[in-house]
Amino acid sequence: MRNLIPSWIRVPIVFFIIFGLTEYVIDSGEKPAFIKYPAVLLFLFLVLLILIAIEAIVSALENVMLYKLDEEAKARFLAEKESVYKFTWLKNTYKKLLGSKPIEEESEIILDHNYDGIKELDNALPPWWLYGFYISIIFGAVYLLRYHVFNGANQYDELETELADAQTAIEAYKKTAKDLVDANTVTLLTDTADLSAGKTIFETNCIACHMADGGGGIGPNLTDQHWILGGDIKSVFHTISEGGRSGKGMIAWKAQLKPLEMAQVASYVLAFQGTTPANPKEPEGDLWGENTLETPAETATDSIQAVTNQ
Q1: pLDDT tens, 154-192?
Q2: Which residue in 98, 137, 222, 305 is deepest, having the highest Cβ count within 10 Å?
Q3: Among 67, 86, 105, where does a domain finish?
Q4: Residue by residue, what is the 3-state secondary structure of the chain?
Q5: How many domains does the chain have?
Q6: Structural domain boundaries, residue 271
Q7: Does residue 292 contact residue 231 with C-beta atoms inside 8 Å?
Q8: 95 in a domain, yes or no?
């Protein structure tokens, strides 16, 4: 085996096999092991030196043994070594794939006619071309059966699947990264934990103007269906984030509250719908129709009652 493969090919092959095994065995995350762990780089360098040293030692031993041979054995050894390094197997394979006749045998395939002394050879198609043609036929048959007979997933189906998987991954990520929410993507939160957090934020920052029961004071009544800047979750979130009408006292809370906190308090505000405050303020703004409310009155009442009873 050693005589079949020269050292300048053998050493890199063995080295990269060891390198691949090292990367496979050592868990280095996204970085290659030899970059993350300098000791691995040192190990690979030593392996390369050892491989080169082994080749040098074996070559030196061959030279020593060569000088101990008689002239006939020495000539036979050198001839065998030289013939191996010429890669005769590669040349033979090339000739077989080419399929051309040797010059000595061209008389067997020469045609009778000639043109001004130029004769034509009746060469058969080269094997490499025939093999490629046969492979393309097999590939075409498999492709036809796979995609047109058995309706296998084509590139459009694969794209749709990948897009669906990506959307699923995005939704899963959003569940753990709620602070990415904004006025365009916010949704009504109904979990008790979110409403409890919204209640805490409301009682800390909002009751001075809207009262603890949402009945309104300086600020408008939050329990009726009249809204000045819109009564859906996106509008309420936007009002909390950007502030109310100029000069009316409602500041923009986006500098003090995180997006998730604004979504929680906005959801808590909408949970006041359908409740009865102690001293409700007169309605202000436009009537926000019943069909546009995101939380039915019964659900809102249950939500606010559940949070209040905690």
Answers
A1: 889 999 999 999 999 988 887 777 778 888 888 899 899
A2: 222
A3: 86
A4: CCCCCCHHHHHHHHHHHHHHHHHHHCCCCCCCHHHHCHHHHHHHHHHHHHHHHHHHHHHHHHHHHHHHCCHHHHHHHHHHHHHHCCCHHHHHHHHHHHCCCCHHHHHHCEEEEEECCEEEECCCCCHHHHHHHHHHHHHHHHHHHHHHHCCCCCHHHHHHHHHHHHHHHHHHHHHHCHHHCCCCCCCCCCCHHHHHHHHHHHHHHCHHHHCCCCCCCCCCCCCCCEECCCCCHHHHHHHHHHCCCCCCCCCCCCCCCCHHHHHHHHHHHHCCCCCCCCCCCCCCCEECCHHHCCCCHHHHHHHHHHHHCC
A5: 2
A6: 192-308
A7: yes
A8: no
CB 67 within 8 A of CB 92: no
Report the DSSP beta bridge partners of residue 227: 286
Give residue for tokens 């001293």: 279
Q: What are phi and psi of 76, to 5 degrees?
A: -65, -40
Query: Which two three-digit tokens encode residue 180?
Result: 């990415």
Range with lowest mean pLDDT among 68-72, 148-152, 231-235: 68-72
Give the distance, in angstroms, between the CA of residue 34 and the centroid of all CA atoms in the same chain. 24
Helix (H, G, I), strand (E, B) or coil at 119: strand
Copy the structure tokens of residue 249.
């006292």
Mean local confidence (pLDDT), 28-49: 90
What CATH number corresponds to the domain at position 258?
A: 1.10.760.10
Distance CA 208, CA 231 (A): 21
Would you call 70 exposed, middle or buried from its count of C-beta atoms within 10 A (0-12, 13-18, 19+)? Answer: exposed
